Amino acid sequence: MTGDPLFADGFDWVVLAILVAKAVIGFTIVVVGVIFMIWFERKVVADMQNRIGPNRAGRWGLGQTLADGIKLIFKEDLKPDRADKPVFRLAPYLSVVPAFLTFTIVPIGGVFTGGNDGGVELFGRRTWMQVADPPVGVLFLLAMSSIAVYGIMLAGWSSGSKYPLLGSVRATAQMVSYEAALGLSVVAVVLLSGSLSTHDIVAAQAGSIFDWNVIATAAVPFVVFCVAATAELNRPPFDLVEAEQELVGGFHTEYSSIRFGMFYLAEFMNTITMSAIIVTLFLGGPAGPVLFGPPLIWGTLWFTLKLLVFLFIFVWLRATLPRYRYDQLMDLGWKRLIPLSLGWLLVIGAISIGRDAGWNRPLTLVGAFSLGVISWAALIGAMRVAKLRRGGDEFGELSTATERVG
Amino acid sequence: MAEFLRAYLTVAVFAGAAGLLVALLSTLGWAVRPSRPSRQKSIAYESGVDPAGTDFGQSQVRYYIFALLFVLFDVEAVYIFPWALRLEGYGVFGLVEMGVFIVILALGLVYAWRKGVLRWV
Amino acid sequence: MVDTVVFLVAAVVILVGALGVIFSRNPVHSALMLVMTLFGVAVLFVAQGAHFLAAVQVIVYAGAIVVLFLFVIMLLGVDTAENLSSEPLAGQRPAAAVVAVASVGLLAVLAVRAVQVSTGAEATTLPLDSERSNIAVLAEVLFTDYLFAFEVTSVLLVIAVVGAVVMARRPRPAATDELEDDGSDGDDLGVERHTQTEAELA
């Protein structure tokens, strides 16, 4: 465990300057990214729905986000008379700041292959291409996403209005449910990398494509993480938080003017940050082949490319999938994703220990897998038997859920 | 200056910048936007009719169950992370002890499932 | 110097938060102030080099426990200022005063005699093992020496869940086709259901 080499030999003005420069660059990337992302989402969704989308403000409507922002700033700001004013003002801060902070742990480039440690030279100092590298990296992500819950919860509560309150209570329950799945699926990555630091996690994936955690952990934690991340972001198909048909606008119904703009900003910022985190944790971050020229540029290029793919996927999901029902959402989180990630964690642990102890690998795999299947089947079987004995539907999600709806 | 604080100095600078951005935009909005308050405008939105009942309603108990289950799995994750960091060091013993831990906690989830509190409808 | 500044700022945040918890009239404001205090403590943990503990502090306490508090507050619907003129429980206030004086007294004694009565070991600002990270050392102790405590923790958590489930679960609907009205008011503690089940099993 070394940490950023920037601080290795003392702290002086050069280090401070680099530090501020990194913060400014990171900040710019996020802000420009959000401006791009809002335009990108509107344009792509428009294309998928056979519409034209924004095309007035600037070339291809690229200035649409800025135009929207300026419009929002000039709008009258309304606060409901029943609102809890201090908390009402505080909530946008609690949404935006964590959205920014999560980006600090994302390495946006660097060369990790051929004995390099991913550092770059800047004014004669070596540093890593990420704003900060806290030793608890991944836990920092979880901490920030737990702070972000407050932004939404308090926005809804402080409005003193029913739709926002409903939206925010729903949102909070949804976000904490999926945060559990999120955290448990990251453990598999930590297990393989042996470190919590995002820099080390990226370094551990630097070899071939088979070192990428998405393949090394056999895709299951990756899928769980992506689903949980989508729910954590409150993006479709998990956007029950602001389900327009039921809740008007959800937690930000009562927000107007630039205060509403903040939540909008935070939402898109989170999408970018979460995509970047997925790329970092599972897809090797800046890892990729160097075709020609300096490898440093290729790292950042691959990272941006992977990031764009995920941004597109998020938009694609929004344009394609209908919204989940709340009971389906909770079922997916608690009855599928969490047991799955826990079971998979033990399987990966067994494989990893088996590799060290020299066990027969396929045998370990088959053994662990069948153990998992057997215990799952035993559990389901026990529940079925108990249900039959009872003669009614005690908990049977299959019978009750479908019959009730149907 | 302590070394451990350095890792977070940038984070602090970043947080400050983010907070400043929100504050700046809010101030800018406060400076330029019109303000024509009226009683009608400050009524909470309830699909166009006058809001009914008291301002802050009660939520349902099932949200509480999910929050409690979240505490369970959050604490579990917090224990699993250090374990995952040094799994090689513990070998089969480590795997078994974490297996026991996970199974016990899973029992809690199964109990809640079995009792039907995970069912939303 | 920086350490001192960080300590002072964090200390102020913690104290303001702690006082806010007590003096806020609105329970939700109290909960928010509690988050502020917990966050300040997390900063102090970082300043002590306890990165993992700081992260845990934010994830578990600020992220989960206080959310639980907020759900309870919203569940009870007590989030408007309470009427403090009437005593909800006879004799509660004198009892509270006695307990408060006793706690303050204990704290004062502890603060004065802290030098003598503490463990005697000097506070350390260095990691236990400079070769490995804090988390690794922590994990090693946790999963070997304190293994039993670690496993018992899981039992404790499960007990908490069982308790909450018993209190919160809804009575079982009589049959699938009579879901609209099963004749119960929705907050009996599943007593009806137990008798039913046992009758069926017998």
Structure report:
The complex is a heterotrimer of chains A (406), B (121) and C (202). Chain A has 406 residues and is an all-alpha fold. Chain A has two domains: 5-359, no CATH class; 361-406. Chain A contains 14 helices and two strands. Chain A has helices spanning 13-48, 64-73, 85-102, 137-158, 162-193, 198-204, 213-216, 220-232, 244-247, 257-282, 295-320, 326-357, 361-390, 397-405, and strands spanning 119-122, 125-128. In chain A, strands 1-2 form a two-stranded antiparallel ribbon. In chain A, strand 1 (119-122) and strand 2 (125-128) form a beta hairpin. In chain A, helix 3 runs parallel beside helix 10 and helix 5 (162-193) packs parallel to helix 12. Chain A is globular and about 70 Å long. The model of chain A is unreliable at 393-406 (pLDDT under 50). With 121 residues, chain B is mostly helical. Chain B folds into two domains: 1-33; 59-121, NADH:ubiquinone/plastoquinone oxidoreductase, chain 3 (Methane Monooxygenase Hydroxylase, Chain G, domain 1, Up-down Bundle), CATH 1.20.58.1610. Chain B is built from three helices and no strands. Chain B has helices at 3-32, 61-85, 87-114. The longest helix of chain B has 30 residues, at 3-32. Chain C is mainly α. Helices cover 69% and strands 0% of the residues of chain C. Chain C has seven helices and no strands. The longest helix of chain C has 26 residues, at 51-76. The termini of chain C are far apart. The model of chain C is unreliable at 174-202 (pLDDT under 50). Chains in contact: A-B, A-C, B-C.
Count of spatially separate domains of chain A:
2
In DSSP terms, counting alpha (H) and pi (I) runs of 4 or more, how many helices of chain C?
Answer: 7
Question: What amount of the residues of chain C lies in strands?
Answer: under 5%
Computed Rg of chain C: 24 Å
Q: How many helical stretches of chain A?
A: 14
User: What's the β-strand tally of chain A?
Assistant: 2
Q: Which shape of chain C, going by the Cα principal axes?
A: globular
Write a brief structural summary.
The complex is a heterotrimer of chains A (406), B (121) and C (202). Chain B is mainly alpha-helical. Chain B is 69% helix and 0% strand.
List key phrases describing it.
heterotrimer; A: 406 residues; mainly alpha; two-stranded antiparallel sheet; disordered C terminus; C: 202 residues; Four Helix Bundle (Hemerythrin (Met), subunit A); 69% helix; globular
